Amino acid sequence: MILELKDVHAGYGSLSVIRGVSLTVEPGQIVTILGPNGAGKTTLLKSLSGLIRPTGGSVILSGTDITRLPAHRRARQGLLHVPEGRGIFDDLTVEDNLRLGGQRLDRSTQDRRADEMYEMFPVLSERRRSRAGLLSGGQQQILAVARGLMSRPKLLMIDEPTMGLAPIMVSEIIASLQGVLDSGTSILLAEQNAAVATRVATTVQVLSNGELSEHSADTGDADAIFDAYLA
Ligand code: ATP
Q: pTM for the complete prediction?
């Protein structure tokens, strides 16, 4: 098991947003948290990456309880968050953005990993000397994922990567996620688009009112997922 959540609670002050979420991510899986705007997807991911502290429950990464670790130590243990809005530095080149993802590595390892990323995502190779701010939205999303992979995390948590993208770019992002799995990193994805969720995920969990729906299903059962989401 890569990630295990046991009865996680989280919120802001007296506002309780996540109310007892339990789930697991196995090696090689993409697990999608599907929910509408405001369902608490981002809050859940933040509580896992340590940007906010869970108010209850536990978070276990590869057998280690990380519930009380600060964010930077969770990242070092291999739990990496690609936030909504991507967090790309517009004024830096593609290459420098990638290097930031590997800043704890020595220079030659950085070079090697960056080359691996260019091989995995040729669109970045073509643009390596461009300012990241000049890339399209979809290319920036791929850069954000590649930057996250520079440290070879065990699990990448990605928040709404297809938001606002044209359908052709959505397909490209989905293909890039498959590349991430092939490189040995599992994925926890937050998504509000049910069609994307069922296309990409191994398992879809529907989040509503801070809880996962009982109707969550393997992606083979797309009808059940749509029913749960629209209920
Ligand atoms: P979106 O698709 O808009 O990102 P989401 O499912 O990720 O939606 P969250 O951003 O986790 O939802 O928000 C869940 C609830 O928590 C909302 O009611 C929101 O208003 C509230 N919330 C989010 N961030 C904060 C904050 N910093 N302080 C107080 N309340 C917040």
A: 0.91
